[in-house]
Amino acid sequence: MRGTSLWIIAAALTLAACVSTSEQPDVAVRVSGAPGPQATTTSDGGELWLIPSPVDGLLMRATLYRPAGAGPFPLAIINHGSEQDANARASAPLPTFPAATAWFLARGYAVLIPERPGHGKTGGRYLEDQGPCDAADYVAAGNGAADSIAAVLTYMHVAASIRPTGVVLVGNSAGAWGALALAARKPAGVRAVIGFAAGRGGHNGGRPLSNCSPDRLVAAAGTFGKTSRLPTLLLYAANDTYFPPDLSGRIADAYRQAGGNVEYRLLPAISGEGHGLIADQAAWAPTVDAFLKAH
C-alpha cells in the first residue's frame, strides 16, 4: 500500500504517547499533520486520531473510544457509508454511530470510526467510485473502501492498548460493502465481519427501491464470497428502500454460494427508513450478540 510503510514506522514512535482526548465541531484547525492520537477530544468522550491512508501523504481522521481499564482491548472498527455525489461527501460530518459504539464499549471493545479518503475533512481523492450506473463496478468500489479499512487495520496493530487479534469489522451500507471486500483478502487479526445494510448503488437517481445495476451488485457479492471465509453477519431491515428484501437476499445468497461464510438476517421493519438499521440497537442487539458468542 503506497506510503503506508513509512507511516507505520512513525506510528510505532507516536502511539506510545497516546493522549486521552471530546470532539469540537471544527477539529481541522486544531490537529497536527503527524499520524497518531491528537490532543483533541470529542463531545461524546472519543479521541481524535489521524491515521495513514492509501493516498500518499493523506491522513484519515478517526475517532477512538475506549472502555474503562488499561487494556489491551479487542477492537471494533465501524465503517461509514458513502455517496456518489462529491458535494455530499465533502460536507459530511465526522461519522458517529452512538448506538453501535455504546454496545461494543459495554462489552469491552475499543471502537474506532475512521473517515475514509474523499469524505468530510479527511478530504483527498475518492477511492470508491462505482462508475456509470449501467456499468457500475461494485468490485472496484468495494476494493477502494477496503484499501482504506486495511490501512486502518495495519496501523492499529501497533497501538499498545489494542489487541492485534480478535478485530471485528463492522460496516454500514458502503462501509459494510468495503468490509466484505476486505474479508475476501483474508486480513490478519480479524475475527468476524458484521454488515448493516451492506451494498452500493441504492436510491438510483434519488428514487427509493431503485438500485443502479442490481445484477452487477449481486455478482460482485459472489466475487467477494469466493475467497472470504471469515464469519460474516449481514443484517437488513424489511423496510430498507436502498436494499429491499429481494435484493438483500440475493446478495447474501451469491456470497454464500461462492463459498462465503455468511449468516443473513432480515429483521422486521424499524421506525423510519430501514436503511438506518445500525442506529436501532434494540432491533439488532440480540442477533449480533448471538453471532459473536458463536464465533
Global geometry: globular
Q: What can be said about the biggest beta sheet?
A: 9 strands, mixed
Question: What class do helices, strands and sheet pairing give?
Answer: alpha/beta
Order of helix and strand elements from N to C terminus: HEEEEHHEHEHEHEHEH
Proportion of beta-strand residues:
15-25%
Radius of gyration: 18 Å
Strand order of the biggest β-sheet:
1-2-3-5-4-6-7-8-9
Give a brief description.
By secondary structure, this protein is of the alpha/beta class. The chain has helices at 4-14, 86-90, 98-106, 138-156, 174-183, 214-225, 245-257, 281-294; strands spanning 36-41, 47-52, 59-65, 75-79, 110-114, 167-172, 190-196, 232-237, 262-267.
Provide a descriptive summary of the structure in words.
- There is one protein chain.
- By secondary structure, this protein is an alpha/beta fold.
- It is 32% helix and 18% strand.
- It has eight helices and nine strands.
- Helix 4 packs across helix 5 (174-183) and helix 6 (214-225) packs parallel to helix 7.
- Residues 1-30 have low confidence and may be disordered.
